Amino acid sequence: MTMGSVYVCAPYADAAFVRMIHEMLRKRGIGYTSTWADHAHGAEDFARFTVDALRGALAANCRGIQRADVVLVYDPTGAGRETYAEAARAVEWGKHVVWCAPRGLTQWAPGVVRVADLDAALVSIEAALAVDGRVKS
């Protein structure tokens, strides 16, 4: 049983690294809902998908954010596009957000914790999750 779950917002091109973050979370007993990274490879190329496929991907990502107890925004280089749209959704939906990315207005929203690096992000995620898997208030 996991102690909670995390959705990782990150650039599509960083999916392999996101899969490593998923493994780090798993080793800590934390689940993940950012399943987009399980099948993402290479550069993001919307032209190779149908409109229905893109809408399906958007819906799946939104479900992942909704199901997560914590959302990690991980984009140290600032290369993400959809990353920040997902971060804004998470804030709008009242999620606890751990921000490990370049500075932007969304990082100052209530419920957002700013961290300097991935190690600090993992510590913050663990601190945010209670034994029953819900974010501490």
Strand content: 5-15%
Helix content: 40-55%
What ranges have pLDDT less than 50 throughout 5 or more consecutive residues? none
Distance between the termini: 22 Å
**Pairing-aware structural class of the strands and helices?**
alpha/beta
Q: How many strands appear in the DSSP assignment?
A: 5
Description of the molecule:
The model has no long low-confidence stretch (mean pLDDT 91). The longest helix has 17 residues, at 51-67. By secondary structure, the chain is an alpha/beta fold. The chain contains 5 helices and 5 strands. A 5-stranded parallel beta sheet has the order 2-1-3-4-5, with helices on both faces.
Question: What descriptors fit this protein?
Answer:
single chain; 137 residues; alpha/beta; 5-stranded parallel beta sheet; globular
The gist of it:
With 137 residues, the chain is α/β, with parallel strands linked by helices. It is built from five helices and five strands, in the order βαβααβαββα.
Break the fold down into its secondary structure elements and pairings.
Elements: E1 5-9, H1 15-27, E2 31-32, H2 36-39, H3 51-67, E3 70-74, H4 82-92, E4 96-100, E5 112-114, H5 118-128
Parallel strand pairs: 1-2, 1-3, 3-4, 4-5
